[in-house]
Amino acid sequence: MPTMPTTPKTMHTADPQAGVFDDDTFVLAGEKLGSRLIMGTGGAPSLEVLDEALDASGTELTTVAMRRLDPAARGSVLDVLRRRGIRVLPNTAGCFTAGEAILTARLAREALGTDWVKLEVIADERTLLPDPIETFDAAERLVADGFKVLPYIGDDPALARRLEQAGCVAVMPLGAPIGSGLGIRNPHNIELIVEAAGVPVILDAGVGTASDAALAMELGCDAVLLASAVTRARRPALMAAAMRAAVTAGRQARLAGRIPRLRYAEASSPGRPPVGAVPVTPVS
Amino acid sequence: MSDTPTARPASDLPRYDVAVLGGGVAGLSIAWRAARAGLSVAVVDPAPGTGATHASAGMLAPVSEVTYTEEPLLRLGLASLAAWPGFRAELEEDSGVAIDHRADGTIEVAGSADDMAVLDELGAFETALGLRVERLTGRECRALEPMLAPSVRGGLLARDDAWVNPRLVVRALLTALSRAGGAVVLDRAVAITPSGGGDLRVRRESGEEIHAGRVVVAAGARSPELLDGLPGAPDTPVRPVKGQILRLRGPRGFLTRCVRGLVHGTPVYLVPRGDGEITLGATAEELGFDQRVTAGGVYGLLRDARELVPGVTELELTETTVGFRPGTPDNLPLIGPAGPPGVVAATGHHRAGVLLAPITAETVVALLTGAPVPEVARSCDPGRFLP
């Protein structure tokens, strides 16, 4: 596992599309990442299509389900990530209990040499919603065991805060159920989570199209994780490029600051100059 | 072939025009067609027909298996599907073995409204590609297949899809090959080495060798063991994709069509045979050559099948099998010259080895005899993975 030295947050982002208006590097668990788009691999029709989509996404961190994967097998998705120099974020998808998730995380740490884990403990197969109690239980124990834990949770501000206090390095609230493509069902809760969080907030699950990813970033999320929206699209690489642009656009919009929502029109020109504006001298 | 193998002059070795390494459906089809074309052929395999072919369900279903981004595979599959009736007629004629070829179509059903939304999108894609599919209501599905659950939301009927019993296909191919004068060497090939006069030698596990003008590597997921390291061959981009598959037995006519379904996003299929057997598959796991049948694998298949066809739980469970699909990065097979002159790859058929057997055999025999290669098979040239 290549690890980058920990350096201060003062560096231009590696993504040229992100622009250089601000020093705005994404730092996760002390590591700098040049992209705020985190990818998943599930649902890709072939490794080649996945490879093209990952390339188009510009991602530097991609999550892989460890439960049914042999890390030593040749030609696997891990090979694709290694070849592209993309950091692997193992996840515990498919686990229903804290016990299974901890076991899976330990196997992943041993196999991949990373202590990062996206903790996913599912409550039921129908909704694939995260089980908050099992998730919290597993998070506490994994943190104590030295893991950098990124828990997948519902859009619950109280749980997010508790997980941060328990030592998680990020929180990953859902926008909507996994694979549903329903977008962000409760933007208000996502805003509340962002407002209170001292660790990165990564919107995970529910993204259906580019505007959903942009909205997550506009709401103040630090990054977006998605898979199906890209892998199940008719043209996955094109959708990956769209997501990359959307995440960048949403982040820039967040930093730029949106204007207030007003009830009535307000002419942009002519009229009184806005407060603080420098009057333009007419050229004759 | 009982003499000591080492250091014999090449002229003493058993020599064939073609040695086919691997006796699955691909290798046996190639060998049979090559023998029919007048070449002397030997298939080398310790246990022909016991690999992925033995596990496979034998679906000839390019229409209902179509996926976004995979139109070249669709075109290849359609060409091979069209070749199947002629292939079957000659195979049954040559062997005297009936292979339970059935062309009653695939009915693909949805277990929920969400699954139906996915199927509707698939149906629109299939229609846009010019494929023949019909949208059915749940009741129409059940009129065709009364064993389907009342909860089935609807489905798609792909009338052009067909299926065969792959185990009978193997039996027929072995008989037809033998009748056409082909040999089967019950041993594992371990290495290919150049020999004098442009020929190749195949070393067997027993230590003995075979001398051949051309060597076809059709060893499925094990093909890299023979191809990797040959001069001019990069690492063969073939990996095992584990599949667990079940066989059930019930009354004849329990199902009449190949039933595929989507249950909460997970695909499952049931393939009925003339003798009452039903093949139920399959998992897809990236676990290397993991031979284990797992509780979760069997449970998931039965759970999803029961949702679509509640009566499956009353059937006898006669077999649980693991097979290894030879997967490639783009899901297209590798058919064509690979490595040193005279070596031809015919592997990487992933889920579609049985479907693609006729087009694979036609392509390889064309390469062996200098006939034109089918245009549609050009997408399978192993050269596409050369750096």
TrEMBL record, chain B:
It catalyses: glycine + O2 + H2O = glyoxylate + H2O2 + NH4(+). Residues 17-366 form the FAD dependent oxidoreductase domain. One of its GO terms (molecular function) is flavin adenine dinucleotide binding. The keyword DNA repair does not apply. It holds the Pfam family DAO. Its EC number is 1.4.3.19. It is an enzyme of class 1 (oxidoreductase). GO terms for cellular component: cytoplasm. Keywords: Oxidoreductase, Thiamine biosynthesis. Pathway: Cofactor biosynthesis; thiamine diphosphate biosynthesis. SUPFAM superfamilies: FAD-linked reductases, C-terminal domain, FAD/NAD(P)-binding domain. GO terms for biological process: thiamine biosynthetic process. InterPro entries: FAD-dep_OxRdtase, FAD/NAD-bd_sf, Gly_oxidase_ThiO. The keyword Oxidoreductase applies. NCBIfam families: thiamin_ThiO. This is glycine oxidase.
